[in-house]
């Protein structure tokens, strides 16, 4: 079997379900792959480990991938698990929409300052002074009834509700934030030398997503083994969210199948970055992705 | 009170414990009076309850962190003293290399962790290296100063007797350096511990071998703040024990001769 | 063998020896100080150029006012300072000759200079350890040296638990244990009571004689200088220099008969006068105020 | 070579710079020979080029970090020595409080950062507190040991002359403690710097007041590795300068009397 | 005023004074050692119970073999050690009386005990600083004290730049600068040449007389003891105890005429004999091997 190391972007959670499901159900094995899933974390720089050969593929973010291409890194996105980035903002219930946050304190992690924060700034006229540090700990949000915080739908709102707080979640994608979510990024070298391995990996993973949404139990067992703090309740909440918001199978995936990406969407992301001054206009943005691996996949939910 | 202050057992054991108990009591009372929610700042009893209920898991994590701590501390001590020996071999070596040793201390481990992970495949080894890098500088710096703090007359005696480098090191420089070296150990032992935690934050692993940093991060993400404090308690308790061990070692090695540890004859 | 009988044995052994071969001034030089001078980094001119030859078997005493450079000269001879100018020969060669067989040097500093972390016995054993004398051989020698200075009972004490005089005696034992050929002693007995001091003086005479020791000795005691020395160098200060030499041509070994002789009293008076002259000569010159009066 | 080794200027200035230059040359050569890509491990020239082109931005970030570093260092020194004074007032205070001071050192700043952010509204103040907490322990520990390393005979002299507590402190304990205190400063100055960086990693903000940690994180996130190394270079250079400043201070204060700094008379 | 003329003035002033009032043994006690004994933590029994009363104006000398507890007794008297049993009175009260007006104590330790980081002048000024004497008043007193020990030129040196004897003289100056009423001196002149020593002995006699100083002095020099003292306590070791007392009932102040008198020689012989007895009595008892022979 061909060995492949995949590095996720965070501690194991339901948002990684497709990969763990493919591992748990033997989908990878079936296509002749020996896959190892390594967990990322808040300070783990996956892209660096990818180009250093520590991983064959990683879970990526479009904006980081475009920046990497700008810096001449030989990396490329081959598939997108989610049709939009799951990033959003969590607010106290008095907030109706993103516009209402103007002038309010928003807790933003350092890594987000060059991703969706400039987008919010440009779109809603937010100021840098509004941004306060966020360390993935909700205490500052909970004590400040006027604050908002960056959030993943299945994480922060879940924690806040566990503490009995009524909160709102506003998905950025709903307001037009263009990047895909939870992509698969690999190196040009991998594509040149073992395109077939990657092809099998992408396919098995997308099968994994399909299977996961149908019955998450096998993956959840593996997730709990890697991340002992993960609970069934939490994962059930997340899977439910993914299902109802059609993160995996909505948008272009409805027709093109799970994992689908389009050049038009990448262009949107590129345009936003250039307009925000975050990316050199000369960047060859088309090298940041290839649709070769998902074009004809056609893994769809029944 | 007078006689109590003179009582060794009271001074060394009871008084510190009393202070600890007092702080806990005030903390408990303050939290209860102002009804501080547990997700913000838990009471000692919240923490104790969590500690009791989650003990097996927390102890497992503590053990993982301790393994890294001890290995890193050992490496820091051995490599640090070796470097200090090297630096005191000649002034030119000291001036040429010692300033660069600072680089070990002031390089943010987060920035170089990926490089270490790339170079060292084994995660535990990578964590150990990160923690050792964090812990080594106080040993290097203090030991270097210590090795130079030799009574010039005794140094003359050794020189006159044509003592070899190794003899001078073992019989003169090392004993003279002990007070500074042991002061370095006190600082370094704590840094090895916090280094192990920080390394785990940075190079992060969950799974079976996850240490206390993972417990803290997860508890913090999940707003299980009592559990986070329970993990913090284990870390700080370990730190205090390490410190007391180093202080005890100082007493053992210096108690019979060095002013800092000597009980003055009255 | 108790310390007293041991001492008697030493003296007897010494007395039984045949007289030394050629005349003292025909003996080979052990230390040659050749126009050596010393100034310190802060500008103090401790020693003007000194010329001094110490021959095998000599017992040379340096005496002079406080601060006249006696310790400095001794340290030059022990190669602990480098002369600012001039040079020093040991056994007609450079310092590498010291330590070679039959050319052992020992130095009793003005301060005890003990290792505070080591017990008395360990302190005394130090020079033997540095020479890699095996422990089984070293241990009885250490015990004997400690007995000789009357500290057999203090072997397991730490230096800080000793009186000033006891510390100094440890330092003396550490020098004697090596059985040196060239012995430098800087006011070794200054902190000792007369009884102990006389006893150690006697021992030193016996030892020098028996082992053909070459000794350079610093003392402030005129009696001690006369009793022990074959030659006395009176130094003066501002700058430190040789002021006068007094040769004590009494036969060796010496004992209480010499101490009580009228010749002894005469020599003491002569030396005392020389010392007074040296003290007066030390005033005013060089320093703003006299270094010692 | 002989005379060079004896030449003060060569030993103190030229030799260290030569060593630095040598390391850079080997690094450059190795990277070029093995064609290591810049995004993995940049060459010194890559870094220098980036440094030159991005200097204004990087210097601004450095200045932000330095402000936090200096304030934190000042706080650590003042509070650390004050605590050390307190601890040496009586054995019972020392035994009751000193072990708990270790908690400052071994608490992961990442875990308590949210609390500090809640309590301290001003970000710079919060960063300064975090960095000061990281830097304070070596000062406390070394100074406490130093204040106890008093020549017992001199202490006797002061006692006999009925010297007051303050007089004994100023005239006896402080000078005696200097060698240890200054050794603590060397360690602490570096920790204040790295503490400022770590605090920013953990609790940092971007915007105009962003420091070097932000630069490093963003460069790392955006895979602009030469820029990351340029920022690292600025941090390490600052660390080396701080170290040399502390070493210079030691020389100034101890050069005329303490063995560790004394040039032995030859 | 040069040091020599200053000294002459002192002696003259002293000679001009009327004789002291009542008999010495009717003077009020300054120090009363009442069955004070001292054992150390390691079990050494340094002093068996000692009874000793030192009256105002007395010059008491302790003499005895090395390690017999002279320094320990002095430290007990300076309240640096607490007696294991028994007690000590100062001016008929406890130690709080010391430091009150006219009850100033100064101690010259056996070792110089200087602050290595401070210059000589600062070291000497220390006791005045501790008493908060304003600097303008302190400075001339420091200069005078340094002149008295012949170190006027060394005021700006650091201790490590001085010879052993010079360091000890700094320590003496530091004691004299406070103009004490009770002066404890532990072998202060042991490291000094005879010329300087005699000069300081003379100064001390003049000073004691002029200022009605009470002095407790330790020396190993029989001549010095006889010359300076009104009373000599001969101590023996194992355990440390008072062995004999010798009263020197010569009139004060004394000078060279006394030094050269036959009475002086007789007293020296008497003391020497007492010391030999004490040394012999110190052997064997208590310790496994004799402490000093
Ligand atoms: N390290 C030093 N730096 C500067 N000057 C020094 C140093 N060591 C000694 N001296 C000076 O050199 C001179 C001679 O000192 P030395 O110790 O040789 O005197 P000494 O004859 O041994 O006196 P003593 O009898 O008091 O021991 C003195 O004036 C002293 O101040
Ligand atoms: N700190 C201590 N701990 C244990 N024993 C001590 C201590 N200080 C002194 N001694 C012992 O007490 C005895 C008396 O010591 P002390 O210093 O009083 O003697 P001394 O009469 O002053 O001798 P010297 O003439 O040599 O100065 C000695 O046997 C010594 O070993
Ligand atoms: O990256 N987040 O998990 O929000
Ligand atoms: Mg000398
Ligand atoms: Mg004594």
UniProtKB/TrEMBL annotation, chains B, D:
Q: Which Gene3D superfamilies match?
A: MetI-like
Which residue ranges traverse the bilayer? 9-30, 68-88, 100-120, 126-147, 229-254
Q: Name one GO molecular function term.
A: ATP binding
Would the keyword Transcription be found if you checked this record's keyword annotation?
no
Per the record, GO CC terms? plasma membrane
Intracellular or extracellular location(s): Cell membrane
Q: Which GO terms describe its biological process?
A: transmembrane transport
The family line of this record is: Belongs to the binding-protein-dependent transport system permease family.
Keywords, A to Z, come to: ATP-binding, Cell membrane, Membrane, Nucleotide-binding, Transmembrane, Transmembrane helix, Transport
Task: Name it.
Answer: ABC transporter ATP-binding protein
What is the membrane topology here?
Multi-pass membrane protein
Pfam families under this entry? BPD_transp_1
Q: Which residues form the ABC transmembrane type-1 domain?
A: 62-253
Automatic annotation (TrEMBL), chains C, E:
Q: Where is the composition biased (Pro residues)?
A: 17-26
| TM stretches of this protein | none
Q: Which UniProt keywords apply?
A: ATP-binding, Nucleotide-binding, Transport
Biased composition regions of type Low complexity, renumbered to the chain: 1-16
Q: Which InterPro entries match?
A: AAA+_ATPase, ABC_transporter-like_ATP-bd, ABC_transporter-like_CS, ABC_transporter_ATP-bind, P-loop_NTPase
Region spans: Disordered: 1-26
The record places domain ABC transporter at: 31-264
The UniProt GO MF terms for this protein read: ATP binding; ATP hydrolysis activity
SUPFAM superfamilies per UniProt: P-loop containing nucleoside triphosphate hydrolases (SSF52540)
Q: Which family does it belong to?
A: Belongs to the ABC transporter superfamily.
Protein name according to UniProt: Nitrate ABC transporter ATPase
